[in-house]
Automatic annotation (TrEMBL):
Residues 409-431 have a biased composition (Polar residues). Residues 398-445 are annotated as: Disordered. Residues 432-445 have a biased composition (Low complexity). Belongs to the cytochrome P450 family. InterPro entries: Cyt_P450_B, Cyt_P450_sf. This is Cytochrome P450. It comes from the Bacteria. Coiled coil: none annotated. Signal peptide: none annotated.
Length: 445
């Protein structure tokens, strides 16, 4: 490992206070691949260069996603209770697979997501968002992370999975307990039980949903593989979607140029989302790859076989943006790496964007006078080596009367079939009973 600055400690609050300054300092000293500590005593490398991330992600012969290649883990130096194992421990799913095996399971996932085109997802997300807003709009204040940004993508995904209301309720509760650290082991077991029962039910009553498509796909997924990929989609999709939504709202509320235009804001929303994806992407230093042999880095250092190599999307985006600072308008503006690159790039980019846009549109339309509830410098960020997300997003606004208070719900197990045009405030929202039910559960009613 090169001398000079010690490895970047990705768990250090000092690093999180200004991570871009730390990336710049380390890059100057070490070049495109910088030494990092993932937790005390656990070494890795972080790639902070756009071209190198792109090249390495496409080089499937040299870089594997299979975490069982992690040398320190293989040789017993990673304790079983390491907090890294939640994100880095091998699981039998697409994210940790290579080559043919990866293509097989990924194809099934991509096909299962394909009916959910952005218009349809946006309509469902708007409908869920309206009901979430109903839960707090009379108060004139809210904590948007817990009350909006986290539940919204999860509730939309529950519908896409085709869950009935009872499974949805248990699934939602188990996930909420996992976030809150309430007996995580029990919550995890409950999650698996709910999904197994859901899969059994879908065998008897298949529908137009992700679960049924995965089950009947020609890739021949076993029930266990279906379960693992439902968990992967929620795991990979939920927190980043919440982070994108909340961080884009923060940008809209703090950037005068974008925020001044809140009323007619579709352009402002798109711009805020793009800005977050460039400068503060939800997934900062993840996933992880493992070189199958020692790899020489341009500039001379070597990454030994089995070293965790983190993909530094946030740093790489920033360095590229700086390089093109005076030419950004001409540059291919969507070429950021925030959705990943290569065979494992995010298969749900359009779905996640549709959820974020719909959520923000509803907030802006329903909450006049929307503003931060604390000074911008009082907002705090989660300390994670892998992700960049607000812990809380307190906001204030002029109190409003709920639009849908007391709407009854009826059992049904899928999201609406058709995409609904953006409704006017006098219209009823598209009805999805499962999400309606879960929203009420969330609100404690
Ligand atoms: C703003 C929200 C999201 C962001 C920023 C995001 C970003 C990413 C990134 C960076 C990767 C890794 C790419 C790579 O390895 O090169 C990824 C993979 C993945 N994402 Fe997303 N994602 C988001 C939302 C979602 C949603 C909503 C879903 C599910 C419905 C999802 C499902 C997945 C899956 C399954 C993978 C693994 C794909 C594979 O290994 O082949 N993501 N995502």
């Amino acid at each position: 490992m090169a001398t000079g600055h010690p490895p970047l400690e990705l768990y250090d609050p000092g690093f999180h206070a200004d991570h871009h300054a730390a990336y710049a300092r380390m890059r100057k000293e070490h070049g495109p691949v910088v030494p990092v500590m993932l937790e005390p005593g656990v070494e890795g490398r972080l790639v902070v260069d756009y071209a190198l991330i792109t090249a390495w992600c496409r080089d499937e012969r040299t870089f594997s996603r299979d975490a069982r290649r992690w040398k320190d883990w293989r040789e017993g130096r990673i304790p079983d209770d390491s907090s890294l194992l939640g994100m880095m421990g091998h699981r039998p799913n697409a994210l940790f697979s290579d080559g043919e095996e990866h293509r097989r399971v990924r194809r099934a996932m991509v096909d299962s997501l394909s009916p959910f085109e952005p218009g349809r997802v946006g309509a469902e997300a708007r409908s869920v968002a309206e009901r979430l807003v109903d839960g707090f709009c009379a108060r004139g204040e809210a904590e948007l992370m817990e009350e909006f940004a986290r539940p919204l993508p999860l509730l939309v995904m529950n519908g896409m999975f085709g869950m009935d209301h009872e499974s949805g309720r248990r699934f939602f509760t188990a996930l909420r307990d996992m976030w809150d650290g309430v007996d995580a082991e029990r919550a995890n077991a409950e999650l698996e039980r709910v999904l197994s029962a859901h899969i059994d039910r879908k065998r008897a009553h298949p529908g137009d949903d992700i679960t049924s498509t995965l089950m009947r796909h020609r890739a021949g997924l076993s029930d266990e593989e279906v379960l693992q990929h439902l968990v992967l989609m929620v795991g990979a999709g939920h927190e980043p979607s919440a982070a994108l939504l909340s961080n884009s709202v923060r940008v809209l509320l703090t950037d005068r140029a974008l925020g001044d235009d809140l009323a007619g804001a579709r352009t402002g929303i798109d711009e805020a989302i793009e800005r977050v994806m460039w400068s503060a992407p939800p997934v900062t230093n993840y996933p992880v790859m493992y070189p199958v042999r020692d790899v020489e880095v341009p500039g001379g250092s070597v990454v030994p076989e089995g070293t965790p190599v983190l993909l530094g999307f946030a740093a790489a985006n920033r360095f590229l943006a700086e390089e093109y600072a005076d030419r950004m308008d001409d540059a291919p503006n969507r070429a950021h790496l925030a959705w990943g690159v290569g065979a494992h790039r995010c298969p749900a980019k359009d779905i996640a964007t549709a959820i974020a846009v719909a959520g923000i549109e509803v907030l802006i339309r329903r909450l006049p006078g929307l503003r931060l509830g604390v000074a911008p410098e009082e907002l705090s960020w989660r300390i994670s080596p892998f992700a960049h997300a607000l812990t809380r997003l307190p906001v204030a606004f002029t109190p409003q009367t709920p639009e849908e208070e007391g709407t009854p719900w009826t059992p049904s197990d899928s999201v609406p079939e058709t995409s609904t045009p953006r409704r006017q405030s006098s219209e009823k929202p598209a009805q999805s009973s499962l999400s309606s039910f879960l929203v009420r559960l969330l609100r404690g009613r």
